[in-house]
Amino acid sequence: MTRGLTILVTKLDGITARIGRATAWLSVFMVLLMFMVVVLRHAFNLGSIALQESITYLHATLFICVSAYTLGNDGHVRVDVFYRGFSERRKAWVNCFGVLFFLFPIVGALGWYSFDYVAASWRIGEGSREAGGIPALYLMKSLILIFVLLFFIQGISELLRNMLILLNKEGVLYKKEEQGGLL
After folding, report:
1. Is residue 161 exposed (0-12), middle (13-18) or buried (19+ Cβ within 10 Å)?
2. Which of 71, 94, 101, 126 is the most buried (most CB within 10 A)?
3. How many domains is the chain built from?
């Protein structure tokens, strides 16, 4: 049973890792696009609302899609005055509690309350309020539901990983980006 859970944790981590790593490359494209907007504006006196909005869309996509990956690599900010001194088992208990009583309820509420908001945007084909803007604001609003999905996937992985630690099966479950990737 623990072997199956370990494989499942690996697969779930793999989903958020692949999406996170692929999306991280958007930062390069975003910087190049911003450079282009600045050059066009200052050197050629040309502006484009759509280009400026595309930077916002890229930034939102980047933030949303790497957040779960960051959670999987323990990269989110945490106040660990006490936590850092805990044993691995105690950390696992704290992590299980956090996932069950904070992560899942918050992500669930976010998904529940944002679904109609996103659906309404799709229904009307919501676009930019600016003339010449991107006519697909509903796509950016859909990122909220992608965020919920990715955090739910990573939350299941975190919960299972910590359960395996509590079962004393933690040997293969430690992952750090600096150690060559997940698991």
Report:
1. buried
2. 71
3. 1
